[in-house]
Fold this sequence. Notes:
The complex is a heterodimer of chains A (203) and B (634).
Chain A lengths: L5 E8 L4 H14 L3 E5 L10 E9 L14 E4 L2 H6 L9 E5 L18 H9 L4 E5 L1 H7 L6 H11 L7 H10 L6 H19 L2
Parallel strand pairs in A: 1-4, 4-5, 5-6
Antiparallel strand pairs in A: 1-3, 2-3
Helix pairs in contact in A: 1-6, 4-5, 5-7
Chain B lengths: L13 E5 H12 L3 E4 L8 H9 L6 E4 L3 H13 L4 E6 H17 L5 E7 L13 H7 L3 E2 L4 H18 L3 E6 H4 L2 E5 L16 H4 L3 H21 L7 E3 L10 E6 H13 L7 E5 L1 E3 L3 H9 L3 E5 L5 H12 L7 E3 L12 H12 L27 H15 L5 E3 L24 H12 L6 E6 H18 L4 E6 L28 H7 L7 E5 L3 H13 L4 E6 L3 H10 L6 E4 L9 H6 L4 E4 L4 E4 L9 H5 L5 E4 L2
Parallel strand pairs in B: 2-3, 2-4, 4-5, 5-7, 6-7, 10-11, 10-13, 13-14, 15-16, 16-17, 17-19, 18-19
Antiparallel strand pairs in B: 1-8, 6-12, 9-11, 20-23, 21-22
Amino acid sequence: MEIKSYNLLNVGVGGQGVIRASQILSYAALLENYKVRTAEIHGMAQRGGSVASYLRFGTEVEGPLIPRGKTNTILAFEASEAVRIFNYAGPETVFLISEKIIIPPMIHQMGMDYPNISEISAFLKNISKNIFFIDGIKIATDLGNLRTMNVVMLGALLGLNVLPLRKETLEKAILRYLPQKLHEVNSRAFALGIETGRKLGGN
Amino acid sequence: MSRPDFASEQVGMKVIMLGNEAIARGLLEAGLVIGAGYPGTPSSEILPTLAEMQKYFPHLKLEWSVNEKVGFEVAYGGSMSNVRSVAVMKHVGVNVASDAFMTACYAGARGGMVLISADDPNCYSSQNEQDNRYFGLHALVPVFEPSTPQEAKDMIKYAFDFSEEYQSLVLFRTTTRLNHGRGDVVLGNVNIQNRDTGFDWDRSRWVCLPSHSRVLRMRLLERLDDISEFADDFPFNSIQLSGERVNGVRYGFVAAGVPYSQLLDALNFYGIRKKVSILKLGLVYPPPKKLIKKLFDSCDEIVVVEELEPFIENILKQNAFEEGFSKEIKIHGKDIFPQNGEFAGEIYLENVARLMGFSYKTVPVPDSMMIIPPRLPILCPGCGHRATFYAIKQVEKKMKTKFVNSSDIGCYTLAVYKPLEGIDTEVCMGGSIGLANGIAKVQSKENPVLAILGDSTFFHSGIPALINAVFNKNNILVVILDNRSTSMTGFQDNPGTGVTITNEPGVRVVLEDLVKGCGVSADKIWVEDANDLNKTVEKLEEAVKAEGVRVFISRHLCSLLESNQFRAQQITPPTIDVNPEKCTGCLICVNKFGCQALNYDEESRKVSIEQSVCRGCKVCIDVCSQNAIYEVDA
C-alpha cells in the first residue's frame, strides 16, 4: 500500500535516543522510496530538556512540521512527555508510551508536583482511544542492554500494526546505525518488541 | 567508522541528510576550498560536516575562526585569492561580521563567496529572532533561501556559479527547521577545482578608501540591476498560474524557505493546490518583477506567507504600486500570519481556512487539563560552572552584599534558573565585560561588579572589552569560566584548546598570558580549579575585594568531555555516597547547589546520590555542612 502522508512524533528526554529513532525511521522510509521530512531541535534542548522530533513520510509530504491534531502515531520514550504534546494528537492517534517517568530535577524545590503514571494514563484516555503503555526499560534491561529500549519501542510499534513500513526495511535501518557487535542483541530486542506490540494490540 | 553518506562519491545515491549536512555536501559539490565561521545554533553542524569530509577531500581548508567577523574575513580573503569560499554563522553572528560584509559587498567576489546566515525564528537557541533577509537589502546583496535539504544542496552549489558570474557576494539564508530537519537528498558530483590562486593586485578594487569606494558603489548598483533583470529566470524561482476561483476569488500565494513547503502541505490538505497561483521564491531579494506582474495579472487577492518581518510583503506592495495594481489587488501578509515566532503546522491550516472561508476544527480542549512542569535545560552533573556560581554565592553571603553579575552567551547562561540564579544580564557575545564597564562606572563599592563569561566567548569578543576596562580604569572582576570547550553548540575547539577543526594540533593560546597582555597586572590574576570549592571561595573573595581590573580564571574541563575522557582512558571516577546517619535533611545541597545527582527522599528526609547520574566531581562533599557526603574508598 502506498502512503500519501504519515505523521509520526517522537518525544522524550535528552539522551534517550529520540533523534536516533527518527533517523532509523527516516532511513527505513527512504528504503521504501518515500519522501522523508523531519524536524528536531538541537542546542539548548540537549541539556536534559524535552526533545520532540517530527517525522513525516509518504508520496505527498512537503514540509517537516505536523499540524496539531494530525499525528498518526506518537512514540513517547518518557510518559509525561506524551502529555506535553497531547494536542498534536486526535481521537485516532496511536500512543505508544514507555511507562517510566523521569522527574526533572528541581521540581520539588520549585514547589511543583509531577504527575504519576495512572494520572497520565487517565488523562490521555480522554484524548485518544489508542493508548498503549510498554515497560520498555524492563524489556531492555532483561535483554542485558538498556540502550536497546528504543529498538524495543520501534519493534512494538510495528507489532501494533500501525506503522506502514516493512519489518525487513525497519530492521535493516536499525542495524545500519549500530556496530556489528551490537547487531545480535538489537535483533533480539526488535523481535521481542514486535511480539510485545502484537500482544498489546491483541493481534 | 565507515565513510559517511555525505562524503560518498556514489553519484545519484539517495540518502537522508540533515539540512546542515546537505548544505555541506552542496559546498563540496560546488568546489569549495575555504570554509570559516564560528559555532552557533542552528548553523553549527555545517563546518564540522565539512571537516569530516576533509579526511577524504584534503583540498578543503577549514577553520573555526575566533569570531564571525574574522570568519567572514578569512573566507573573503579566499575569495580575493580566487577560490570558492564560505563563511558560516548563526543570524546574530552576522551582526558581528557585518562590518566586513557591508564593505566587502562593494568590492564583490572574485572566487565565489557565500555568507550562510542561519536564522532562528522562535529563538529556540538564540537571544533574538532577527530577520537577516534585511542584511541583503541593506548591503545590496542577493538573498537565497532554500525550502528543503535537497534544494539547499543544489542551491548553494549554484550560488558559487552565480557569485562568480555577477562578481557578487551571496547571502544564503536558512531557518532552524531547514538546518535541523532531515530529508531525502540525491548525491551529485564532487567538484575539485585547481585554480590559479595568484593574488590580484588590483588596489582600486580591494582598497576601499573613499575615492575607490565611490566608484565601487556605482558598480555595486549596476550589479544589483543586472541581478534584478535576471531574477525572473532564477532557477529556484517558480510560478504556477491558475485562473480558477475558490469561493469566487482568484487567490495567489507567495512564499520561500520552509514556509513554502508547509504552505504546499496546507494547500494539499484542502485540495486546492492546483486551484491557486503560487509564486515560489528561491531568490528572495532582489524580487523577480515580471513574475510578480504575472501573478498580479491572474489574481484578485495575494497572500504572502513568511515568518518574521513583512519583507516580501513590502516588496510586493511596492511593486503593486509601481505597476499600477495598488487598487485592484489585495495583498495580505502580516494581517493574517503572525510577525513573531515560527509558524507551527496548524498555523497554515487555520489561516488558509480563515482567509478562504473553509472550516477548520481546532483540537478540542479536554475537560480537565494536565499541566506538566517544564523540563528546563540545566547544567550537567560535575559541571565546573555550577561550582563557580555556588562559590560566587558563598562569597556574596560572606561579604553580606549582592554582586552585579553581568553575564554572557554559553552553557552558563542556564545559571539564571533556580537554584543558582547566578546571572543578572545577558545580551550578546562578549557583552558581559562591556556592560560591566558601564555598570561599574555608577555602582557603589558595596555592589561589586562581576563579568562572567566562558573561554570561547572571551576569545570571541571579550578581549577588547577587557582592554577597555584596563585603559579606562573601570574596576571590574572578570570571571572566565574556562571549560576548554565551546560546549553549548557541540564542544567545538577554540584557541584555548589549541586543536583545529580538523583535529590537528594548532597553537594553544594561554588565557593567563593573554589577560596579562591585555594589561591586567600579574597580582590581579587568579587561577583555580572550578571544582575545588573551598579554594575557589577563598581566592574569589580575595579577588572581589582587590582593587582595579581583576581576572579570575575558574578552570575545569567540560564535564561531558571529562566523562568521555575517563571512559576512553578506562578511568573510574570517584564514587560518592551519603551517610544517612549524618544527613540532617537540611537540603542545602539540593536547594542551593542543585546537582541532578542529588536525590531527596521525602519519607526518610535524607539525601542520596543517583549513581547513574553522578560523575564524581566531589563538589557536593564540600557543599555539605554536616560532612554527610563522602568519597567511597576504591
